[in-house]
Design brief:
Distance between the termini: 41 Å
Strand content: 35-45%
Helix content: 10-25%
Structural class: alpha+beta
Shape: globular
Strand order of the largest sheet: 5-4-7-6
Radius of gyration: 15 Å
C-alpha cells in the first residue's frame, strides 16, 4: 500500500511544478528545496542527535495533506540543550509565518524553550 501511495504522489508531481504550492515553487527557484529522484520536492534536515551525540540527517519530502503545502526544518532548544530537531512539513500559510529562509532564529520565550523553523538544507544545524 505504501508504494502505491508513493506512486500516486510521484504521478501527481512528476514533470510539473504547476501542482506545487507557490511557496514550494519559490523555494525551488531559490535553491532552498531540491527535487528528489521521483520528482518530489524535498530538503535535508538535521535530526535530533542520538544519545551518544551522533549527528543524523534526514531527507524530508513535501507531505500530502490539506491545502497548499511545503517543507522546512525545525529546532527546539533550551539554552544549549537541543530538545528536538527534524523535518517540518505543513500548510504553506503556517510555514510562511513561522519559518525563515536559510536562518533558524527565534525570539526567546520566558520559559527558555525556543522553537524555530527554516528553509534550506541543514538550516536547523545552527540556531540563534
Amino acid at each position: 500500500m505504501g508504494s502505491f501511495l508513493l506512486l500516486i504522489l510521484v504521478l501527481a508531481f512528476a514533470g510539473s511544478t504547476s501542482a506545487l504550492s507557490k511557496l514550494t515553487n519559490e523555494l525551488l527557484a531559490e535553491g532552498l528545496l531540491s527535487m528528489e529522484e521521483y520528482g518530489l520536492p524535498e530538503t535535508v534536515c538535521l535530526l535530533s542527535p542520538l544519545k551518544d551525540g551522533s549527528a543524523r540527517i534526514q531527507l524530508c519530502p513535501v507531505t500530502e495533506g490539506f491545502g497548499p503545502r511545503s517543507v522546512g526544518c525545525f529546532a527546539v532548544w533550551n539554552g544549549t540543550d537541543v530538545l528536538q530537531q527534524g523535518c517540518y512539513s505543513n500548510q504553506e500559510i503556517a510555514l510562511r509565518t513561522q519559518c525563515k529562509k536559510g536562518d533558524c532564529s527565534a525570539d526567546r520565550n520566558d520559559d527558555g524553550v525556543v522553537f524555530c523553523c527554516c528553509f534550506g538544507a541543514l538550516c536547523n544545524a545552527a540556531r540563534t
